[in-house]
């Protein structure tokens, strides 16, 4: 892995991890699904506008359109929507650790549904990773963490794992920054449309205009929303999905640290131990799956 890929991966992990703490700021003052739908509408519109200005065209294949829809619905609507709702009741540090278990879920589903073999190192990492997640969740739940919010975080991570398994690269037939930006924008609009419909049917309107809300909302549009997604796609195209996924092992450490600094969330000894176990498990699974 070259220095540029390493830098991209570290920046992606930091940006992605920061989304949880800023999301908790947003849901404190706004209805979660409506706020997320609006965020995706703005981010998607900006991305598509810039992409078209750079010469991108809507000439995607049928398979690419399916990938756009699947990724938009499973990641943007289901994964992030469930996490936004959950963070009305659970701390960002718990949400980011549960979300970080996604690569473990991908490995487990690949083994269960596709018969993909895991070497002994990968199997040990899978068991350790889930054990670390269970340690944190069990301690938090016994300490008063909301069970519904915790369950929603788990469902969100599962949705992202399914998206990762079913997604076929939607950017392979088109090269360059413009077409990639177009794909990202279309995925966001797909998620926005789904979330807006659900919010209209199920969610009471709630908005308290505050400076923290405005800053967190703007940050989510440009950093986790646009920049992190673009870096992720570029990283996957540069080093492959398996190697790129190793950077997820940094999310528990980055996410809990950001939540502590930004929100003042307290960290327990079991959080630190569990996050370290999860990170080691993810790393072991990903390393074991690398092509020899």
From TrEMBL:
GO CC annotations, alphabetized: membrane
Residue ranges occupied by any EamA domain in the UniProt entry: 5-137, 151-284
Subcellular location: Membrane
Recorded family membership: Belongs to the EamA transporter family.
Pfam short name (any one): EamA
Organism expressing this protein natively: Paragemmobacter kunshanensis
Name the UniProt record assigns to this protein: DMT family transporter
Recorded topology in the membrane: Multi-pass membrane protein
Keywords for this protein: Membrane, Transmembrane, Transmembrane helix
